[in-house]
Structure formats: structure tokens, C-alpha cells
Design goal:
Number of helices: 18
Number of strands: 19
Strand order of the largest sheet: 1-13-4-12-11-7-10-9-8
Radius of gyration: 27 Å
Largest sheet: 9 strands, mixed
Shape: elongated
Length: about 550
């Protein structure tokens, strides 16, 4: 699985940015830096493409992305790349100066302040220990470079690279021009990682014209640990799903979901996942395979470290790789539901905290698809779902498809002005306008009869839903379920946790106050449940043709 602009291709080959200071980074590094053998520094082609995109600018010379994440398997060369980026950011022409025709030109930043940040000193050592052998002798003289244990100074001590593992309070208030955050898969609440990340974000955000940058380097994270790396991946995926640009470039090369972790198959998988890191010993007799073969290393850790896969938590509702295998493969077109097709719809309505979601299921084959998801935008404190926008989407769905059933689980949230249940007037209107066409009525009889309102608080409905939640996970594991590959649904499915109850194994958030939403996953189960119920309805026998033969 390839994520990020580094992997874009067209009929002419690799797609590269039109405007970038990356070419100057490549040239400067080859001139002033050296590798472990003492030869001129040379990036791999994969690293070079990443740097061209990392240093890409727009027509005004502003960075295309203020933050970037580089996620690769262990041993790929993330620390050497970070060291080279730090050196270029401190001493090279890394600051946009002007355009020479259509070519952006960089200049050395006289106030360059590069920070290598980690939550432990051991993490910064991986990068800092590279500097004594990184600079050529004439570079030390040209830039007046002095190398200490935790600092690199130059140009009369006017610029520096520093390693930081101090408290967030000590970091806050600085004005760095480039920050490298190391091993963010290990940054979490227990080691003040989130506070440290917040302090860095604040420092970078106040830079003049957005000139400061953040580069995160990490391995695949462990889901459920709520690490900075996990939050960055979720932020990226949510932005992609919403179609908004938040200035975050994410670049990763991961084994496909169905990659087998066997001694026979692993060498071929590793050959693909290592990219251009030819130095990694990934062959049948290599050290990486020996690590995978050790029973002391769990399969999930081997997948995380060497396949660069984000594996499931112990209480994950669905294995992420299984879910991905049920959707379109990378590069394949996403399935669409044509106008006039018969579908069922399931709605989960909230007001402000949880997401509001609407999913469907195609009756001809059980394809699960997303109609719409409305959730609080990132960094937004006050937000209420736009009921009118949701209503328009519901009505548009009824105009587009032959809807044979539409069930809605309404939250108990109240309207601030009327005190009525937030979604009840809309559910009543939908039932009034469309209910007569539904084969599947939400509550077909009794005192609470309603075409749309399907209250999951009722024990009968809870039992039915949990039964179908279990059936849903079985269908995912068996590969008999298909979905449209929607990114928000994928995120909500990954967020969901197994929730044992008196009726079986349901699904829910990791905890009540969690910001990781699962509402689209709930709707997917509901829509699929309705599909199974549709299949159970006795169908009329086909009419005889009237002809017979003796």
C-alpha cells in the first residue's frame, strides 16, 4: 500500500512537483555531506522523491505542506535522512528567497534553528551521533561548524541544531525554523508526548509566513495507544476523506493487507516494502527474516516493524487488514451505486459530540456504501450538525435510488430552543414523505409504529443489532462483505472496539469520552442488517410463461 505523493506516476513516470527547493537540497547535500564510507552523500531515488515533495512550494514561494510524516519500516534510513534534512535546514539554501524565471531559489536562513525532538534521549542519539561523520572537512571550515553531544553550531554560533528531550514547558515559546520529531509512535500521554507535540505545533504555527516546518519520522504505530503517530495518521485520513487540505503530507509504504507472514512469502513482501533501502538484509537467509522467525517476536510486532503495517488492537472489533480486503484495491475505482438501484438506508443521528452518519446497502449484492457523514471538524470546539444539510442528503438519496427501507436511530439530544428531541421532527417528515414506499418498515405495528424511527434503546432492537454486528464481523473475516472503500467509514471501523454484552459481542468507542468516532460503523451494521432482513422476506414465485411441452 503506497500513501503520499512520492508514489504518484503518470504515463511519463514519477510525478514530481513543478516548484520545489528539493533540487537544491539534493545538490547541496552531495556537495557538503558524506556517507559512512566518506563518499559524497547520495539519497536513494525514493528519498529524493520524498525530499522534492517535502520542499515543494506554491507560486508565492510558500511551502505546500507545513507538516510531513515519513513512515517506513525499521532500518529504512529515516534517521540519516533526518540528519541530512537538519544539516540542509541549518546551513543550506533551505529558505525561499525568490524566483529565477519559473525556478524557485533558496537562501541560507540566517536565523536557522533546527530542533530534533524526542521523548527520550536515546531517541535523539540515533540522529545526533551521525553528525560527526556527516559533514565533509571543507563544510566544517566553510560554515564554521562545531559539533557537540547535543548541539551543532555554525556561522559564528548564529545557527544551530539542537537535540531536545526536555519538558513541554521548556520547549514552549521557541522559534525553530525546522523541527524533526523522532519516533512519534512512542509519544503518548504517559511520557508527555502529546504535550510536547502541542508545544512544538504552537511554536511552528507562529512562524512568519508559515516558514517553519515539522517532519515526523516513525515506524507503524500500535493502534489504541493514542500515540502522536496514531493521531497524525487519523488526522491525515480524516482530511483526505473530507476532501480538505490541512497542509499535511503523509508518506508511507506498507505491505498489503493480505500479505502473508510466512518464512516462504516474507522475503518477497520485504523486498517490496523496503523500497530503495537496498542495504536491508531481507533475503531468505537475512537478519530480518530471522527476526520474524523468532517466537519471542509476536506476529503483530513483526508486521508492525518489518511490514510497516498498522495492526489491530487486542479488542479491535474488526481486523483492519480484513476490512481493507473487502473494499477496492489501491488504484482500483471505487464502486458506485447507479441511479434507480434498490437500496436500504440506515441513519445514526447525533447533535454535536458524536458523528451523524447515513449508510446504505445495495439489495442486489449487499454492497455497503456511505451516503454521508457529518462530524466535528478538527480543532473546532463548538459545533452542531447542520440538520438542513442532512435532510437534503436524505431527500437526494430518495430521489436517486429506489429506497426500500430507511431506519433511523435518533439520539436523545434535545433542541436548544424547543426542547424536543433533536431529530424527531425530521424523522416524522421522512416517514410522512417516503414511508409508503418502504417494504421494510422500522416499526411496522404496535403503539410505537413508525416507518423510520428505529430506537436502539429497546431491548428487542438491541438484541437484533448485536446479532447482526456479530454476523457483520463474520462476513468481513470471510470476505463475503463488500464496501465502497470510503475513508471515514474505514476510520470508524478501525476505531470500533469489541463490546461484550448480554446479547453477544457488539461494538462501541474505546471509552465514552473518546474523540474517535464509530457512528459510520454502526450505520454500516444497520444497513447490512436491513439487507439480510430483506433477503429473508418471501419473494413471489415467477409467473408461469403459459407454454408447456409434453
Amino acid at each position: 500500500m503506497k500513501i503520499g505523493p512520492t508514489w504518484q506516476r503518470d504515463e511519463n513516470g514519477w510525478v514530481l512537483p513543478e516548484l520545489t527547493l528539493g533540487w537544491q537540497c539534493l545538490g547541496w547535500s552531495g556537495r557538503w555531506l558524506r556517507d559512512q564510507s566518506g563518499d559524497d552523500w547520495q539519497f536513494t531515488m525514493e528519498q529524493a522523491r520524498f525530499l522534492l515533495w517535502y520542499y515543494a512550494v506554491d507560486e508565492s514561494g510558500r511551502w505546500l505542506n507545513s507538516s510531513s510524516v515519513l513512515q517506513r519500516l525499521k532500518g529504512w534510513g529515516k534517521d540519516p535522512l533526518a540528519a541530512a534534512v537538519s544539516a540542509f535546514s541549518c546551513f543550506g539554501p533551505s529558505m525561499f528567497s525568490h524566483f529565477d524565471g519559473d525556478t524557485p531559489v533558496g537562501a541560507q536562513n540566517p536565523a536557522a534553528w533546527v530542533q530534533l525532538v524526542a521523548v527520550s534521549q536515546e531517541q535523539t542519539k540515533n540522529t545526533m551521533k551521525l553528525f560527526p561523520s556527516l559533514f565533509k572537512r571543507d563544510a566544517l571550515d566553510e560554515y564554521g561548524i562545531q559539533i557537540g553531544r547535543l548541539n551543532v553550531w555554525g556561522l559564528g554560533d548564529s545557527v544551530q541544531i539542537e537535540a531536545i528531550t526536555s519538558s513541554p514547558l521548556a520547549v514552549e515559546g521557541g522559534r525553530p525554523t525546522q523541527v524533526v520529531r523522532n519516533e512519534t509512535q512512542n509519544w503518548n500521554s504517559s511520557n508527555q508526548g502529546h504535550d510536547l507535540a502541542g508545544a512544538v505545533d504552537g511554536n511552528v504555527a507562529k512562524s512568519r509566513r508559515g516558514t517553519a516546518r515539522i517532519l515526523d519520522i516513525c515506524n507503524a504505530y500500535r493502534p489504541g495507544e493514542d500515540s502522536v503517530a496514531e493521531r497524525m495518521r487519523e488526522t491525515y485520513e480524516n482530511a483526505q476523506a473530507a476532501g480538505i487540505n490541512i497542509g499535511l503530507m503523509y508518506d508511507s509504504l506498507e505491505a498489503p493487507p493480505d500479505a502473508p507472514l510466512t518464512l516462504d512469502a516474507a522475503p518477497d513482501v520485504l523486498e517490496a516494502v523496503r523500497g530503495d533501502a537496498w542495504w536491508l538484509d531481507t533475503g531468505p537467509d537475512g537478519e530480518v527474516l530471522k527476526s520474524i522467525a523468532k517466537t519471542s517476536n509476536s506476529p503483530s510486532e513483526s508486521r508492525r516493524k518489518w511490514f510497516n503495517q498498522i495492526t489491530a488492537t487486542a479488542d479491535a472489533w474488526v481486523v483492519p487488514q480484513d476490512w481493507d480486503l473487502c473494499g477496492p484495491r489501491q488504484g482500483e475505482p471505487k464502486p458506485s451505486v447507479d441511479a434507480g438501484e434498490q437500496v436500504v438506508l440506515f441513519f445514526d443521528g447525533s447533535k454535536s459530540d458524536d458523528a451523524t452518519a447515513l449508510c446504505g446497502c445495495r439489495l442486489s449484492d449487499g454492497l455497503v456504501f456511505v451516503v454521508g457523514v457529518w462530524q466535528r471538524p478538527p480543532q473546532t470546539k463548538e459545533w452542531v450538525v447542520d440538520r438542513a444539510a442532512v435532510d437534503r442528503k436524505v431527500r437526494a438519496a430518495h430521489d436517486l435510488w429506489d429506497v426500500r427501507g430507511f431506519w433511523a436511530d435518533l439520539s436523545d439530544a434535545r433542541d436548544d430552543e424547543t426542547g424536543a428531541r433533536y431529530w424527531e421532527p425530521y424523522a416524522d417528515a421522512w416517514a410522512r414523505d417516503f414511508g409508503a414506499q418502504y417494504t421494510l418498515q422500522a416499526v411496522p405495528s404496535g403503539p410505537f409504529r413508525h416507518a423510520v424511527n428505529w430506537d436502539m434503546r429497546g431491548l428487542t432492537h438491541q438484541k437484533l443489532f448485536v446479532e447482526h454486528a456479530e454476523r457483520f464481523t463474520s462476513d468481513v473475516e470471510d470476505g463475503t462483505l463488500t464496501h465502497d472503500g470510503n475513508e471515514i467509514l474505514r476510520q470508524h471501523v478501525r476505531n470500533a472496539r469489541r463490546r461484550p454484552g448480554k446479547f453477544g459481542i457488539g461494538l462501541g468507542k474505546e471509552h465514552r469520552e473518546s474523540a474517535r468516532k464509530v457512528d459510520a460503523a454502526v450505520c454500516a451494521v444497520g444497513a447490512r442488517m436491513m439487507w439480510h432482513m430483506w433477503l429473508a422476506i418471501p419473494k413471489p414465485e415467477p409467473e408461469p410463461t403459459g407454454a408447456f411441452f409434453l
